[in-house]
Specification:
Length: about 210
């Protein structure tokens, strides 16, 4: 994932798609530190174009269609995962910049990015908790009745998606730990308890995969 931030995509990648052309122009060229606002705007564009059926909502999560439930959760978590990486990137750069000049005062921007990273991390964790509460964490424990071929396919998907979930959960824990270590503002103190609860949930979910 880190190498993606430093390596531009192929020249003719996505020539048939206006969105992919925009993404290519945004990601191409020499990579240097920036606030990744353009990349964040691409996330907004993707989310705005997700069909209503696949939007992560109370309706989709209450659906009896296991495919809708799991894919809505996947799309939502991927969106939050990218936004979390962007916020964490900005947050870490600001912390490093502050440390370099010996400044102990957190800027408003640093607090905003800390809060955003915190929120995205908790949304990822809570979404996976919701899936786990439905018995769908492995995508094999569904109450739905599958024919034998579909069951075999579900088992195959299990091993692939499990790695994806593990990666999201471990990465979600990192900004929460950073938040706790850098929470200096009284205005952010109310977010400490949710961060600790989120870390406990991360550990609990990861134990299910260990």
């Amino acid at each position: 994932l880190e190498s993606v931030l430093d390596t531009p995509p192929p020249k003719h990648f996505g020539d048939s798609s206006t969105f992919l052309k925009n993404a290519m122009s945004t990601l191409s060229g020499f990579r240097r530190y920036k606030e990744l606002r353009e990349e964040e705007a691409l996330c907004d564009e993707v989310r705005a174009n997700v069909p209503p059926y696949w939007i992560h909502s109370q309706e989709s999560m209450a659906s009896e269609d296991v495919i809708r439930v799991t894919h809505s959760e996947r799309i939502h978590c991927l969106d939050q995962f990218v936004r979390m990486l962007i916020a964490r990137h900005r947050f870490s750069e600001l912390v490093a910049e502050r440390a370099a000049i010996g400044d102990q005062e957190q800027s408003n921007q640093e607090r905003e990015d800390m809060t955003l990273a915190h929120s995205c991390a908790l949304q990822i964790i809570n979404a996976h908790l919701q899936i786990a509460s439905k018995g769908l964490m492995t995508y094999c424990e569904s109450r739905a009745i599958f024919v034998s071929v579909l069951v075999l396919n579900a088992v195959t998907l299990c091993s692939l998606d499990g790695v994806h979930v593990i990666h999201q959960l471990t990465q979600a824990g990192r900004p929460l730990i950073a938040f706790l270590l850098n929470c200096q503002s009284d205005s952010l103190k109310h977010l400490i308890t949710p961060a600790l609860d989120g870390l406990r949930s991360c550990v609990g979910l990861l134990r299910r995969f260990s």
